[in-house]
Specification:
Structural class: alpha/beta
CATH topology of the largest domain: Rossmann fold
Order of helices and strands: EEEHEEEHHHEHEHEEH
Bound molecules: adenosine-5'-triphosphate
CATH superfamily of the largest domain: P-loop containing nucleotide triphosphate hydrolases
Radius of gyration: 19 Å
Strand order of the largest sheet: 6-7-8-3-9-10
Number of domains: 2
Shape: globular
CATH architecture of the largest domain: 3-Layer(aba) Sandwich
Strand content: 15-25%
CATH class of the largest domain: Alpha Beta
Number of helices: 7
Helix content: 25-40%
Largest sheet: 6 strands, mixed
């Protein structure tokens, strides 16, 4: 099991986690004996082929899926279900269509119970609407927003609660390149001021390197840990790490690993359809 020993306490522990889902062809194994520790303040990215089991891994930590065997511990206790300590940003816009921008962000705060004092709700909502460029749309409903704005709203809602853990599944995938880069920088900024532990699923090797302290490359389905890579850059992190020669080397190394796993998954798919 790889853990970057920062001396910080281990907050999340995947222990020998396996999951199978029933299918018409019988049980399909999606995760295979995954073990991973995540320490306080770490930013861990998960990268691997499409459909290999990454979201399932995150859903177990989110408390939405139970492992078939093994366990996931949060501060030493098995995860039993979702909770306000874990802010989740899904691939698809997780916003309520019947609530306005302002109400969507405020709703997350209400859900968080007493965790965020009521007197602070209004200023928190205003702050995150501002950060996400949504202030002029405060009273708009999601259907009147562009796809990118809806995703920014989902991100605002998750950040506003200030969860200890951020679980992000391709949060920036649907955004245009400029907005994506702005959202990456904003995330780094939020993390500088609020001590969080982050698990990010991404298909972008650059994004993983730019943001993470560790990158977990997972195999073709069933997802197993192929390798864990320590990112050699500290925080605060600035745009110019993209020009560091180590950035290019890491990118080439990770791309090669991910491509191998895509190829393995493609061979599996061909076998399945024989
Ligand atoms: N609740 C479920 N019931 C049955 N099958 C499921 C369920 N959830 C996921 N799967 C299947 O498990 C496999 C892995 O899905 P998962 O979403 O974890 O992959 P992923 O790596 O996140 O994919 P992507 O990168 O495309 O988002 C897929 O074949 C998916 O169809």
């Amino acid at each position: 099991m790889s853990t970057l020993d920062t001396g910080a306490p281990v907050r999340v522990s995947f222990r020998d986690v396996s999951v199978e889902f029933p299918t018409a062809q019988g049980p399909m194994r999606v995760l295979d004996r995954v073990s991973l520790d995540i320490r306080q303040g770490e930013f861990v990215s998960i990268i691997g082929p499409s459909g290999c089991g990454k979201t399932t891994l995150m859903n177990i930590l989110g408390g939405f899926v139970q492992p078939g065997s093994g366990e996931v511990l949060l501060d030493g206790k098995p995860v039993r279900g979702p909770g306000p300590d874990r802010g989740v940003i899904f691939q698809e816009y997780g916003v309520f269509p019947w609530l306005t921008v302002r109400q969507n962000i405020a709703f997350g705060l209400k859900l968080a119970g007493n965790h965020v004092p009521k007197a602070e709700h209004e200023s928190i909502v205003a702050r995150y609407m501002g950060l996400m460029g949504l202030r002029d749309f405060a009273d708009h409903f999601p259907k009147h927003l562009s796809g990118g704005m809806r995703q920014r709203l989902a991100i605002a809602r998750a950040y506003a609660v200030r969860p200890q853990f951020l679980l992000m599944d391709e949060p920036f995938g649907a955004l245009d390149a400029q907005t994506r880069s702005a959202m990456q920088d904003l995330l780094l900024e939020v993390l500088q001021t609020e001590d969080k532990t982050v698990m990010l699923i991404t298909h972008s090797v650059e994004e993983a390197i730019y943001l993470s302290s560790r990158i977990v490359v997972v195999t073709a389905r069933p997802a197993r840990i192929r390798t864990v890579i320590d990112v050699p850059f500290g925080y605060p992190r600035a745009e110019n790490v993209h020009e560091d020669p180590r950035f290019g080397e890491l990118r080439a190394q990770i791309r090669a690993l991910v491509m191998e796993e895509y190829a393995a998954q493609a061979r599996q798919t061909v076998r399945l359809s024989d």
